[in-house]
Amino acid sequence: MAASSYSLSSKVKLNNGILMPRIHLGVYMTSGRETTSAVLNALQAGYVAVDSAEWYGNEKEVGTAISQFLKSGENAQRLKREDLWFTTKLKSNNGYDAARKAIKSSIQQSGLGYLDLYLLHSPYGGKAKRLESWRAVEDAIDEGEIRAGGVSNFGVKHLQELLDSSPRILPAVNQIEVHPFNTRTDITTFCQEQGIVVEAYAPLARALRKNHPKVVELSKKYSCTWAQLLVRWSLQHGYVPLPKSVTKERIAGNGQIEGFEIDGGDMKALDQLDEYLVTDWDPTDAD
Q1: Does residue 3 surpass a pLDDT of 80?
Q2: Is the pTM of this model over 0.90?
């Protein structure tokens, strides 16, 4: 796919052959009506994927908004459940039985029938619990509860540990914090070598660097917002960004990235802004 053809309808093929949307709405730290409203606004703007988590406590609101949209007159394309993508995550690695129970709970909370993507939210819990939890994901995939499985906040050592365990099903995704101010080249390179798609959370660096001179300069050059520039950077690296907003206009704007392409020199200039800016947490070195 040519870089210039990225849009809200773009897809990436996972290592299990399933096509996943390229841009997802993030709903971290949202709740109640705020979550429902954000998801409805995103779906009306053309988004087809939402990223939630057990930890966020908003699986029910996301699922309700998706179901509401599908039945509404706003669903002009007459999309069905299978046309939309719902991601959620396991809060804690507490072993096989606990993970299977959590998966069933997430399906029930969302009311969506199945999970498109299910991730181990972090590597915390130790090797044995991580691997047991992954085995639960594999079995849930076999039973049709989950379409694709992956991990989040896994460092190279955690990914290598999982691959060395000879899993029946390989992780399709590793969701980590990635943006020009925290490029995590070690992890992203390993993932791309192993056929694991990198999902970029906090792709806007939580607006902490929106006034950086280089961001301002390039936003003017490409006649885009600072947020569109950062989403575009993520896409052109082959990542799947999860921009978060609860504002209708910003949600729509963050997905309007098809009108420009960052040239090679400017991509390198953005890459060089790396300062290991962690906007929330970094469990990638956990034992």
Answers
A1: no
A2: yes
